[in-house]
Amino acid sequence: FFVEIVFPDDQGRPNCSSCWEIYSDHDEHWSDLIDWILFVSWVGGIIIGTMIGSNMVLDEVSRAGPRNVVITGSTRGLGKALAREFLLSGDRVVIASRSEKSVEMTIKELEENLHEGMATEASSSRKNLAHAKVVGTSCDVCDPNDVRNLAEFAVNELGSIDIWINNAGTNKGFRPLLEFTDEEIQQIVSTNLVGSILCTREAMHVMGNQHKAGHIFNMDGAGSGGSSTPLTAVYGSTKCGLRQLQSSLLKECRKSKVGVHTASPGMVLTDLLLSGSTIQNKQMFNIICELPETVARTLVPRMRVVKGSGKAINYLTPPRILLALVTAWLRRGRWFDDKGRALYAAEADRLRNWAESRTRFSFTDAMEMYTENTWVSVFSLSVVCAFIILTGTTTLPGT
């Protein structure tokens, strides 16, 4: 069977008697072929548009820098993972903690991570890392003077502040309120709520006086939405208070160039989460908890390109929760065994190949960074690509 490709006449029919005969005899086959071409065109348009959109997101993230970032409570856990991720994105980072010794040790460790990252990155990416640096100072976020000194230190070292993350927080285990001491209650409220308010005020003061806009992130946690948090009532009430602070500042800063946002890391395997946890808690952690490095890898790219104010950047999104529940039976023993003993590697071991694994930032990682506006752009691109493909098939009979 041989088909000769010819140009159609003015009515869309083949300008060839033999071809027209074939077309007339096999009209049903042509219809099936056209339907198949239409389907492939739309699928191809969506795939191409999505890939273009992903590359646009990755390009935007790589160009958005360097950022000047301040992170409180950043000498361990999620705070240190965030600092490392910002640093390996080519940003300048100020870390802070109450312990001066911890700050010095963390700076040394992060500098080693940066050197490893520069050794594994391509030459083009290595240029971005050339601007990266990490400095730090001790700061008790409960002390207003310490907070002011932290802001002054950051401005002196970096010149300005683009992103300020209030990550410092504490909890004293899973217990009824009656079992908490006066000192424990005061420390939780002072660190989580008062400290975040003091830091937010100071960050707003600095960012309001600088030429470019700045963004402040307060970390969400259990209870931030007003839900009950039995056995962590004090901690939950502080997080709920931060959500109220957020809604109030959105109205106060409506005409300001300072953006106030929330970041929700979900459940992260840190000392803050594990303190006082039971075996039953740990079995639940197997399902929905993640390592600090995994969470930071998702949150940081979104923080770096945030715009406006009032954004909520979440790691534990509904799709992730659904996936965790559907695959719960596969996640048994992921982090802890039946007796509650940890099965995951220590941080030092996890970071041995961290710089190398981080370079495998691919299409799927870009998909995680999509905002609603980006999805609109991707859909528009898919329609355009589909239209271009479809216009190329108009020479076929019946189209």
From TrEMBL:
InterPro entries: Chl_b_Red, NAD(P)-bd_dom_sf, SDR_fam. It catalyses: 7(1)-hydroxychlorophyllide a + NAD(+) = chlorophyllide b + NADH + H(+); 7(1)-hydroxychlorophyllide a + NADP(+) = chlorophyllide b + NADPH + H(+). Keywords: Chlorophyll catabolism, Chloroplast, Membrane, NAD, Oxidoreductase, Plastid, Thylakoid, Transit peptide, Transmembrane, Transmembrane helix. It comes from the Eukaryota. Signal peptide: none annotated. CDD domains: SDR_c. The chain crosses the membrane at residues 36-58, 375-396. GO terms for molecular function: chlorophyll(ide) b reductase activity. It is found in: Plastid, Chloroplast thylakoid membrane. One of its GO terms (cellular component) is chloroplast thylakoid membrane. GO terms for biological process: chlorophyll catabolic process; PSII associated light-harvesting complex II catabolic process. Pfam families: adh_short. PANTHER family: CHLOROPHYLL(IDE) B REDUCTASE, NON-SPECIFIC LIPID TRANSFER PROTEIN-RELATED. This is chlorophyll(ide) b reductase. It comes from Ambrosia artemisiifolia (Common ragweed).
